[in-house]
């Protein structure tokens, strides 16, 4: 039996841990301060069995810590999952830009340091400019090997936002795109200037019909646009739209999180990024667009709908 392998990638490693649609929705609720089994059940609309399963999965991967007795357990962020805070902010920012979502318009983020309502912005740690994925180049890093991909990784692939039962729609369009393993992989590869179907297929151990289905979905969702490169037979290349490129900051937070938390052999990053706009190694920093300071989870207050929420804290 041949093993399934792909290029070592911190994005894939990270998403294999937390990228399942249900895991993303559960973490979102815990970020909003919903901690009880019943609370998460109600807010996400997940079935009990799936919720138990994913809570266990997230605990096994040190992304949630359980407190309290068997009757009234509650689930809390760990240092590892609180480190996904910038990722959650980038999800909200993208969703807000491309979807008319009342739940998001009800979110108010206030940066305690400057006292202002703010938008989170992905910037380069060196030149402080806003990061655009088109101004980033990739080089193999010390950990550039191949990863064996576990076929059993739990990634659901129902491709309809309506299939997400959550009452809360804060970033369900994004969850719907990246909560599918292959769709997320395809987007990540597109940042590397892959355009042709066969190029994606060479990189991914996935059946042709499934890949074709995902490519079609990404076109429908406005992430890719197609341009013909051959007439007989007609063949198209896939290009990221602005909406697709604007997912880059979200993926960058996933990549940096994966570099920090998903490097089992301690080999170092599989990939190094350069911000070509300034020529320096890219270390993405999420800052407050009002004062330019890096946004830290314990320095942000937010309100959502009618819920007052204070800063997120790890159970650390
Ligand atoms: Zn820079
Ligand atoms: Zn600020």
TrEMBL record:
Residues 9-103, 164-266 form the HTH hxlR-type domain. Keywords: DNA-binding, Transcription, Transcription regulation. InterPro entries: HTH_HxlR, WH-like_DNA-bd_sf, WH_DNA-bd_sf. Pfam families: HxlR. It comes from the Bacteria. One of its GO terms (molecular function) is DNA binding. This is Helix-turn-helix transcriptional regulator.
């Amino acid at each position: 039996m041949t093993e399934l392998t792909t290029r070592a990638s911190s994005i894939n490693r990270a998403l294999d841990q937390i990228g399942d649609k249900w895991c993303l929705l559960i973490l979102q609720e815990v970020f909003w301060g919903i901690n009880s089994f019943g609370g998460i059940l109600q807010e996400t609309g997940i079935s009990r069995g799936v919720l138990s399963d994913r809570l266990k999965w997230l605990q096994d991967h040190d992304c949630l810590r359980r407190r309290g007795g068997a009757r009234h357990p509650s689930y809390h962020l760990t240092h590892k999952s609180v480190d996904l805070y910038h990722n959650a902010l980038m999800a909200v920012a993208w969703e807000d830009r491309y979807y008319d979502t009342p739940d998001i318009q009800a979110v108010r983020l206030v940066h305690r340091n400057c006292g202002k309502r703010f938008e989170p912005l992905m910037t380069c740690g060196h030149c402080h400019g806003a990061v655009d994925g088109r101004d980033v180049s990739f080089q193999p890093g010390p950990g550039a090997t191949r990863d064996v991909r576990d076929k059993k990784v739990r990634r659901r692939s129902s491709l309809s936002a309506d299939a997400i039962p959550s009452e809360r729609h804060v970033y369900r369009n994004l969850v719907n795109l990246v909560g599918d393993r292959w769709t997320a992989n395809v987007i990540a590869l597109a940042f590397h200037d892959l355009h042709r179907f066969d190029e994606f297929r060479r990189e991914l151990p996935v059946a042709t019909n499934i890949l074709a289905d995902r490519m079609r979905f990404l076109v429908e969702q406005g992430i890719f646009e197609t341009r013909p490169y051959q007439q007989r037979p007609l063949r198209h290349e896939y290009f990221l739209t602005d909406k697709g490129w604007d997912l880059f900051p979200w993926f960058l937070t996933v990549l940096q999180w994966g570099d920090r938390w998903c490097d089992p052999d301690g080999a170092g990053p599989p990939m190094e990024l350069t911000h070509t706009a300034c020529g320096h190694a890219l270390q993405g920093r999420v800052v407050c667009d009002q004062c330019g300071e890096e946004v830290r989870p314990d320095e942000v207050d937010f309100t959502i709908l009618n819920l007052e929420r204070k800063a997120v804290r790890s159970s650390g």
